[in-house]
From TrEMBL:
Name of the protein described by the UniProt record: 1,3-beta-glucanosyltransferase
GO CC terms in record: fungal-type cell wall; plasma membrane; side of membrane
Keyword vocabulary terms for this entry: Glycoprotein, GPI-anchor, Lipoprotein, Membrane, Signal, Transferase, Transmembrane, Transmembrane helix
Residues in the signal sequence: 1-17
Organism lineage string: Eukaryota, Fungi, Dikarya, Ascomycota, Pezizomycotina
Region (Disordered), start-end ranges: 424-467
Family named by the database record: Belongs to the glycosyl hydrolase 72 family.
C-alpha cells in the first residue's frame, strides 16, 4: 500500500486524464461518442469566505487543498465539480491540472460577489454594463484552455420569482449571448454556456423556453443557451418519482434540444440524507431526458449540507455521514451501463423551437425576445479580448500525495491518501481511487463530528427548512451559496 501510494505521489504527469466533452443533440458526449452523465458535487469550500479577492483566494487557488479534495472526491466517485465564485486574476493551473488528472470536470459560474460581479434580480439594466461583462469574459479567458472545463453558467437563479421574471429574461439572455460570442471568437473549442435556474415551478418552464428557443428558428442563434440546469430540492428523504415531482420534470423537459441537468440537488429536510434520489437520477427514465446532477455540497457550512467537515485551523478534513451514504448510493449503480450509452445520429434529437411569445405561459413572465444591445465599449472588448488577459494551461503535477490529515467519521486517519492519476480520456468513477475508508455501516447517524468545534469557518450561509417540494425547500441552498453573488447588487 505504502509503495503504491509513493509511486503515485512521485509520478510526474501532464494532467491528461480527461478530454473535452462536446454537446451532441440534447446530451453531453465524450470522445468515444458515449453520452456523459454528470456525477457532481458543488465545490465552494468555506462558503462565501472561500472567495477573497483582496488576498487572491478562491476555491481553485491552493494546490495543496485541491490535492486533498480531489483525492476525497475521487473516492466518492465524482466526475464533475461546480465552482460558484472564481477570481480570474488568480492562477488556477495547478488546481485545474490536479482535478483533470483525477478525471474530474469543472462547471464554472462567471459571476462573483464583488462590485460589478453579477446581474441584479431587480432593475437588471443597472448592472448590465461594460465592467460586468468584461469580468465574465475574463473568467472565460482564465479557464478556456483547461480540457476539463466543461461549461460556464452565465447566471444562477437570477429569476427566482414572478417579479424578477418580469424584468430579468432579456438581460440574462443578452449576457449569455455576449459570453457565447466571446467563446466563439477567442476560444479554440466550443465551450457550452447556459443558465442555472431556481426550481420555482411558476417560472421554471417559462425560463427554460425563453433561454433555449432559437431566434428565427436558427439553432446557431448566439443568444440561445447551450445548456439548461436547475437547482432542485423536491426529493426529500425516502420520496419517490411521483411525490417528488420528478415525473413532472421529465415530462416538462422531454423535448429539450439542449442538455438539462441538476446544477444542485440534495434536500436535507430529512437527516442524515438517504440520497435515494440517486437511483432515480441515473435510472433509465430520468437519464433519457436529464444528464445527471450535482449534489449540494462538498463542505459543511452553517446550512448543514456538507459531505465533509473542514477544520480551517489546520486544513484537516473529516468525512461525514452523508459522504458515506452518497458513496454507497453511487456504488449501487452499474456505471459502465450508465456511462456507456451511445449517442444518436447528429441532428436526430429534438429541434429548438422558434422563439415566440406563445411559448410563455405565465402572464408575469417577460415574453418579448428583443434583447438589449451590448453596453458601450463591450464591442471593443469582444473584438480585441479582455486586457490584461488572464492565462491558464494544464501543467505537470509532480506530487499527488495529500499533505493534510483526512479522517474517517470515527476519527481514524486515512493513511497514504493521494490522487490517483487516471489514463487518457478516462473520467473518474466509483472505484477509481480505492483508498481504504471506514465502512459505512459503522458510521453513526448525523453529520456532527468530534472535531466540529475546531472549525472557525466564517461563512454567511444560512438555511431555513421548508416543506418538501416547496419553493423554499427546492431553491434556498442556491440562494445561500451561489446566488449571494447575484444579490450582491442589493448592497451596492
Amino acid at each position: 500500500m505504502l509503495i503504491q501510494s509513493t509511486l503515485i505521489a512521485l509520478s510526474a504527469t501532464l494532467a491528461a486524464a480527461v478530454k473535452p466533452l462536446s454537446v451532441k443533440n440534447q446530451f453531453f458526449v465524450d470522445p468515444s461518442d458515449n453520452i456523459f452523465q454528470i456525477v457532481g458535487v458543488a465545490y465552494q469550500p468555506g462558503g462565501s469566505a472561500g472567495y477573497d479577492a483582496t488576498h487572491g483566494k478562491d476555491p481553485l487557488s491552493n494546490a495543496d487543498i485541491c490535492r486533498r479534495d480531489a483525492a476525497i472526491l475521487q473516492i466518492l466517485g465524482v466526475n464533475t465539480i461546480r465552482v460558484y465564485n472564481l477570481n480570474p486574476d488568480v492562477n488556477h493551473d495547478e488546481c485545474a491540472s490536479i482535478f483533470n488528472a483525477a478525471g474530474i470536470y469543472m462547471i464554472l459560474d462567471v459571476n462573483s460577489p464583488q462590485v460589478a460581479g453579477s446581474l441584479q434580480t431587480y432593475n437588471p439594466w443597472e448592472s448590465y454594463y461594460d465592467t460586468y461583462v468584461n469580468r465574465t469574459f475574463a473568467v472565460v479567458e482564465a479557464f478556456k484552455n483547461y480540457d476539463n472545463t466543461l461549461a460556464f453558467f452565465s447566471g444562477n437563479e437570477v429569476i427566482n420569482n414572478e417579479s424578477s421574471a418580469g424584468q430579468v429574461p432579456p438581460y440574462m439572455r443578452a449576457v449569455t449571448r455576449d459570453i457565447k460570442n466571446y467563446v466563439a471568437k477567442h476560444c479554440d473549442r466550443k465551450i457550452p454556456v447556459g443558465y442555472s435556474a431556481a426550481d420555482v415551478r411558476e417560472v421554471l418552464f417559462d425560463s427554460f423556453e425563453y433561454f433555449t428557443c432559437a431566434e428565427g428558428g436558427k439553432s446557431n442563434d448566439p443568444s440561445r443557451a447551450d445548456i439548461f440546469a436547475l437547482n432542485s430540492y423536491s426529493w426529500c428523504g425516502n420520496s419517490d418519482f411521483q411525490k417528488s415531482g420528478y415525473d413532472d420534470l421529465v415530462d416538462g423537459f422531454r423535448n429539450t434540444s439542449v442538455p438539462v441537468f441538476y446544477s444542485e440537488y440534495g434536500c436535507n429536510a430529512v437527516q442524515p440524507r438517504p440520497f435515494t434520489e440517486v437511483g432515480a437520477i441515473y435510472g433509465e427514465e430520468f437519464s433519457s431526458v436529464f444528464s445527471g446532477g450535482i449534489v449540494y455540497e462538498y463542505t459543511q457550512e452553517d446550512n448543514d449540507y456538507g459531505l465533509v467537515k473542514v477544520n480551517t485551523k489546520d486544513e484537516s478534513v473529516t468525512l461525514l455521514k452523508d459522504f458515506y451514504t452518497l458513496k454507497d448510493q453511487f456504488s449501487k449503480l452499474d456505471w459502465k451501463k450508465v456511462q456507456g450509452v451511445k449517442s444518436a445520429k447528429e441532428g436526430s434529437g429534438p429541434k429548438a423551437p422558434k422563439c415566440d411569445a406563445k411559448l410563455i405561459q405565465s402572464k408575469d413572465f417577460y415574453g418579448n425576445f428583443t434583447l438589449p444591445d451590448m453596453p458601450p465599449n463591450v464591442d471593443k472588448i469582444l473584438a480585441k479580448g479582455v486586457s490584461p488577459k488572464p492565462t491558464g494551461k494544464l501543467v505537470d503535477i509532480k506530487d499527488f500525495s495529500v499533505k493534510y490529515t483526512v479522517k474517517n467519521a470515527d476519527g481514524s486517519v486515512i493513511s497514504d491518501l493521494a490522487v490517483k492519476p487516471l489514463g487518457s480520456d478516462e473520467s473518474n468513477a466509483p472505484g477509481s481511487n480505492d483508498a481504504k475508508i471506514q465502512d459505512s455501516g459503522s458510521v453513526s447517524s448525523g453529520n456532527s463530528t468530534s472535531s466540529d468545534s475546531d472549525s472557525d469557518s466564517d461563512s454567511d450561509d444560512t438555511k431555513n427548512s421548508g416543506a418538501a417540494g416547496s419553493a423554499i425547500a427546492m431553491t434556498l441552498p442556491a440562494v445561500a451559496m451561489g446566488a449571494f453573488a447575484i444579490f450582491a447588487g442589493l448592497a451596492l
